[in-house]
Amino acid sequence: MTSHIPLPQGPVTADLASDRRRDRSATQQRILEAAQAILTEEGPSGFGVNAVARASGVDKQLIYRYFGGLDGLLSGLGERIAAWWQEKLLQGPSPTPMASYGALIEALALRVLHVMRTEPLAVQCALWELADNTQPVKALAAARGRALGAWMARAKGDLQPPDGVDAPAVNAMIISALSYMVLASRNAPTVIGLATDDEATWIRIETALRALIQGVYGAQAR
Prior knowledge:
globular; 2 strands
């Protein structure tokens, strides 16, 4: 007598498919977590498909299957870093309400400076952006830009810069200058005559930053 093994029914098949989706999602997250850890700890020089595969404990073929290779992995990492930046920006004092557009930019600039000085991932991403202009790395830079834009959209409300002020250009110069000061301070104790290994210097920089923003956007900046 031949025994028959019952075939899985619809609900069982659906459960198996759901389990596979969960497994795939969990593996993707593990890969991205490993990628972020490598970038944070070793910088771009230690980054690659093989390194990420080893750190995440998966076969590198899964990275190609799930992300299509290094470019896709960097794209996924960019999205993860965008969310990370938003989280870090929002960990500071509540961005609302603000008395003026200048106060808004002051809060954002000070928060960016804090994140750059205290978070290795922020520094490593900035270094990679400077050293590599490939499209995947540009995606990392765009991710940071999206995070800053999301913070602004949440905090800005109806605030507008004064007439005649090119706010996008001014704000870009402010954020770029702060990023440069932090990056340069990693390799030299003195940057453009300022002793950046002295915490008092950073207090001076914050004071100067407030004065600059007040000068551009008006007395209500503080």
